[in-house]
Amino acid sequence: MPLSRIASSSHASNLLKPLSAALSLCRSISSDSTSTLTIETSLPFTSHKCDAPPRAVDTSASELFSFFRDMATMRRMEISADSLYKAKLIRGFCHLYDGQEAVAVGMEAAITKKDAIITAYRDHCTFVGRGGTLLEVFGELMGRTCGGSKGKGGSMHLYRKQASFYGGHGIVGAQIPLGCGLAFAQRYSKEENVTFTLYGDGAANQGQLFEALNMAALWDLPAILVCENNHYGMGTAEWRASKSPAYYKRGDYVPGLKVDGMDVLAVKQACKFAKEHALKNGPFILEMDTYRYHGHSMSDPGSTYRTRDEISGVRQERDPIERVRKLLLAHDIASEKELKDLEKQVRKDVDDAIAKAKESPMPDPSELFTHVYVKGLGAESFGADRKEVRATLP
Amino acid sequence: MATLFHGVGAALTPFSASNKLLLPSPKSESRGAIFLHRSDARVNHAFNLKPATPNQDLFIPNAVATKRETSTKSGHELLLFEALREGLEEEMERDPRVCVMGEDVGHYGGSYKVTKGLAEKYGDLRVLDTPIAENSFTGMGIGAAMTGLRPIVEGMNMGFLLLAFNQISNNCGMLHYTSGGQFTIPIVIRGPGGVGRQLGAEHSQRLESYFQSIPGIQMVACSTPYNAKGLMKAAIRSENPVILFEHVLLYNLKERIPDEEYVLSLEEAEMVRPGEHVTILTYSRMRYHVMQAAKTLVNKGYDPEVIDIRSLKPFDLYTIGCSVKKTHRVLIVEECMRTGGIGASLTAAITENFHDYLDAPIVCLSSQDVPTPYAGTLEEWTVVQPAQIVTAVEQLCQ
């Protein structure tokens, strides 16, 4: 029975649950917190040149709970980044991911930290999903030394090498060949890992995507190209930019799958399916049908090319966090009060991280010249005036 | 880290201390050394020093010193593209992470035969034939380098790498910086460029001037089989992204190189011919035009110091500076365009750093700011010819 029908009745269930410490993130629930729950995705998968995976997804209570917690953290983080930007603590470009959290969280659930992920500039939540801390995110957004790239990259350049997260790239589509290279390296070293290369519906019209697809298919590279289709490429709707908005079919000879990107369980299932496919048969395309509530970036109000009704409509009907909340309540995994307490805790964690990041210093001027070259090159680098700011590159 | 030793200063083998003069025509054999260089670049004085002005009666009728015996020397003779291949093969043997990717590098053996035989030896994945998609296979090389592989991306002609400019500039050059040092990109991007024999405008481009502003990359230009092999090995071993510029017309140069393994320094310039009157800075093919002009100049009584700068980014300001302090006059001869070329940057760098030592303004001879024409006579006039170099030195030394 589709879940949406159960959802509305779950709010009425008022079983008294023992008040476990809502502050601890590791919630001890009943003894069957890790037993398998099978939940159906709300929409079927649409496939291209392959068989669609089953709609029934295996999960567990603790996994669902972690989905909620992670997505709530990401949502809170992005909203706080919005306020920080308006307070002029974050400058330049800031592309927010709220609304799309299910893609990042669902993908993490299906893969390991050895599988590589590379994405474009809307990378804050993907970074957190790969294990990045809130402090590193806010530090980097505000340009402090505690940031993930020591303040030298900014919003669009978050990386986490130890978790195989390869960034964080500003030029639309340029990360796709890089992702192809990551898959090449995985095939070269014969590791049984895959690379998820994320791009948007705007980048789906880039030539380098098709070049990379061709090469990946030619050499059976374990590359999974994931189109996060939020239906707007900057300010242009997808139907105005793409002749064929069926991005999962764009691969032609490469099989593809269209997934409801607002349903974290569907994302998990699709990614798991894609990983198995890629390890055996080469590249795969996933199209995540998702939505962003904010505009393209902070300088875009997001309402000039779409109506506020549309945005609030999606928020009401398809919001990924609300879906998981309903699931948790329906399956008696948590009570409303516990979830609300968890959200309060998340809010506090985010605020603490922001406060700590604000205390972190700006990079020292000598940092201007570090990391231009790798250590060992005894070259000199000059500032613009060529006389004053001068350092020997380490 | 392998020991690096300067090509000129290597005292290991008897002939490695000499730099032969090779005539600009690519097919001729080398015809004897000009000078025997010592490690501190002092000339083996067989004749007196010449003064700055040509009016003295001391002038050398015979510009060539002792003839070298080629039969008793150790080492082996090969062509420049073979030297590149040797360097590449040795590095691939040494490190399994080294791989090559480019158009026609595998089964075809490379359009200039630099990768001939490697695909049979190392397999299709290590010597990868790519489709004609420079942007994405360069990006692929960079992505692979991020994980620790050491790819060598070959552009069939340097001009084609313009299509990959975004990847080279943004991802290759900047990733080490924007990731706060997390990723290194040990990639080598190489290919032939420069004006060839009537190849037309689009296939005669000099990209060193376009790439020189990109922060984070190193650029080197090879000019002899000896430095081609050494620079290739150094570039592969370097943790930084390196762009190795070769020249279409220099692939068939023949030279004897040592049997032992050697690696050159990526940031050092090469002293081709020490002198006293004027410093001539050059690189790649123009080195041979300069040496040809040097013969004429020596006959006229001048003593030019010729330095092959080799390292285009960063400049070896130490060697150049020592030379400027000695001669006080600088002539730059390059194949880049007049506007925004390597010579323009070098002029600025020397002026800023060594202004007090200059007796005359720096003269920079570069190619004309025109697309390279097809007609042979016109093509000759776009690049600097030895006669122009001689005239420039004469004017500079007045």
TrEMBL record, chain A:
It catalyses: N(6)-[(R)-lipoyl]-L-lysyl-[protein] + pyruvate + H(+) = N(6)-[(R)-S(8)-acetyldihydrolipoyl]-L-lysyl-[protein] + CO2. Keywords: Oxidoreductase, Pyruvate, Thiamine pyrophosphate. Residues 297-316 are annotated as: Disordered. Residues 306-316 have a biased composition (Basic and acidic residues). Residues 69-365 form the Dehydrogenase E1 component domain. The keyword Oxidoreductase applies. InterPro entries: DH_E1, PDH_E1_Alpha_Subunit, Pyrv_DH_E1_asu_subgrp-y, THDP-binding. GO terms for molecular function: pyruvate dehydrogenase (acetyl-transferring) activity. Its cofactor is thiamine diphosphate. Pfam families: E1_dh. It is an enzyme of class 1 (oxidoreductase). Its EC number is 1.2.4.1. The pyruvate dehydrogenase complex catalyzes the overall conversion of pyruvate to acetyl-CoA and CO(2). It contains multiple copies of three enzymatic components: pyruvate dehydrogenase (E1), dihydrolipoamide acetyltransferase (E2) and lipoamide dehydrogenase (E3). Tetramer of 2 alpha and 2 beta subunits. This is Pyruvate dehydrogenase E1 component subunit alpha. It comes from Stylosanthes scabra.
From TrEMBL, chain B:
Its EC number is 1.2.4.1. One of its GO terms (molecular function) is pyruvate dehydrogenase (acetyl-transferring) activity. The keyword Ligase does not apply. Signal peptide: none annotated. Its cofactor is thiamine diphosphate. CDD domains: TPP_PYR_E1-PDHc-beta_like. InterPro entries: THDP-binding, Transketo_C/PFOR_II, Transketolase-like_Pyr-bd, Transketolase_C. It is an enzyme of class 1 (oxidoreductase). It holds the Pfam family Transket_pyr. Keywords: Oxidoreductase, Pyruvate, Thiamine pyrophosphate. Residues 78-253 form the Transketolase-like pyrimidine-binding domain. It catalyses: N(6)-[(R)-lipoyl]-L-lysyl-[protein] + pyruvate + H(+) = N(6)-[(R)-S(8)-acetyldihydrolipoyl]-L-lysyl-[protein] + CO2. It comes from the Eukaryota. The pyruvate dehydrogenase complex catalyzes the overall conversion of pyruvate to acetyl-CoA and CO(2). It contains multiple copies of three enzymatic components: pyruvate dehydrogenase (E1), dihydrolipoamide acetyltransferase (E2) and lipoamide dehydrogenase (E3). This is pyruvate dehydrogenase (acetyl-transferring).
